[in-house]
Amino acid sequence: xxxxxxxxxxxxxxxxxxxxxxxxxxxxxxxxxxxxxxxxxxxxxxxxxxxxxxxxxxxxxxxxxxxxxxxxxxxxxxxxxxxxxxxxxxxxxxxxxxxxxxxxxxxxxxxxxxxxxxxxxxxxxxxxxxxxxxxxxxxxxxxxxxxxxxxxxxxxxxxxxxxxxxxxxxxxxxxxxxxxxxxxxxxxxxxxxxxxxxxxxxxxxxxxxxxxxxxxxxxxxxxxxxxxxxxxxxxxxxxxxxxxxxxxxxxxxxxxxxxxxxxxxxxxxxxxxxxxxxxxxxxxxxxxxxxxxxxxxxxxxxxxxxxxxxxxxxxxxxxxxxxxxxxxxxxxxxxxxxxxxxxxxxxxxxxxxxxxxxxxxxxxxxxxxxxxxxxxxxxxxxxxxxxxxxxxxxxxxxxxxxxxxxxxxxxxxxxxxxxxxxxxxxxxxxxxxxxxxxxxxxxxxxxxxxxxxxxxxxxxxxxxxxxxxxxxxxxxxxxxxxxxxxxxxxxxxxxxxxxxxxxxxxxxxxxxxxxxxxxx
Length: 520
Hints:
By secondary structure, the chain is of the alpha+beta class. About 25% of the residues lie in helices and about 25% in strands. The strands form 10 sheets. Strands 12, 13, 14, 15, 17, 19, 20 and 25 form an 8-stranded mixed sheet that branches. Strands 4-5-3-9 form a 4-stranded antiparallel sheet, with helices on both faces. The chain has a 3-stranded antiparallel sheet with strand order 2-6-7, with no helix packed on it. A hairpin with a 7-residue loop joins strand 4 (about 65-70) and strand 5 (about 80-85). Helix 4 packs parallel to helix 6 (about 220-245), helix 6 packs parallel to helix 9 and helix 9 (about 430-445) packs across helix 12 (about 510-520). The relative contact order is 0.14.
């Protein structure tokens, strides 16, 4: 067996946050699944080299007892392999251990860097699945009562959706854990006079319970965690179903770790929907991300964008602090990626005025919430994002600004069904699927040559009257609270006329956005 290894740059993981190593030893004979990322991931510009690289990986890691589990995502740049814990430890020069966190419970993790066989240097660019710590935080913000909560028809009127029901369009919804209750979707559609939709459930490493009986069969901790997230899943689906009942809707389920992100995005690249909704994320500089994780996830987002897929990602519900308890402002990843549409949040006052979403103290842990947004500390501002927004952090880079757009996140919330009952909800988790549905509705009405285009750079390009296209296709939100979260960092980005780092270009003006996209 070859002994020479090289460090896998960017693979370092610190001790998991808010978790402790436990005395219980991990079973060395336990079989685990890992995703190996290859050079050029996200695109398939050289299929012959990709196949040759895959053969080298299979041969090299096979010497350690690892075997191929799934090669279907090779086109996107990944191979899924499996083997025993002891074999993975040997292959990647690591020492897997068990940890326990208050929210996650018991999970497998590691600390330090990985190494790979020297013959794979430059071929393997990432290894995911060894460490199962969560790097996705759900965004759901519970409403209170159904008085005045917005129905699908209300949303269509508020945001001037163009005609149609999404026929012929494929929409993806990405989920981490949770449940999917078919009967809740059916009840929601009956309540709103909608046809029963075609919703496909696609397990990508996680199979969700589909009813109460299946949920009860899970171990207690898994049952609790799945049910906690189920409301998020049902909200995402029902918003898309309510606005695009005739679309081909696929809901993809994975686990909460970096491997889950990679596996989901690989699948999206292969299936090529016109739009994707993602209601999860974590501060881009949170220590539980590895640098490799950010890099490899962003490669796949870039690959999706190159295929014309607009991935709509919520910008977060915890304001400028993004639950990072320090004195800096933070942005959420993947919303901060330049290869997605970052979606912030608004709220509608009793008089009908729509403003930025902020409820004291601007952080869900304090019983409030606020739209995420700001200037990235990780991703440079792309050339097409020609806006003037300075970071509130000292010695900051001229980073990518988020969000790009916004939609309803706060009161009066969305009229939804969960566990058979009316349960309004919101957050930027709701804003993202709304935009995914709008993009599909618009795409269906565009001429063929202008369909399936990555929307975000187009918004910043010039429309008519020398104004950015985003100003034509969105209604500006020029009033409301800044997005500060308190006590940390205690300051936030201001709402202003025109583009800002709180609501972007504003909320949708669907018919005008359609007209604008017909001209570019």
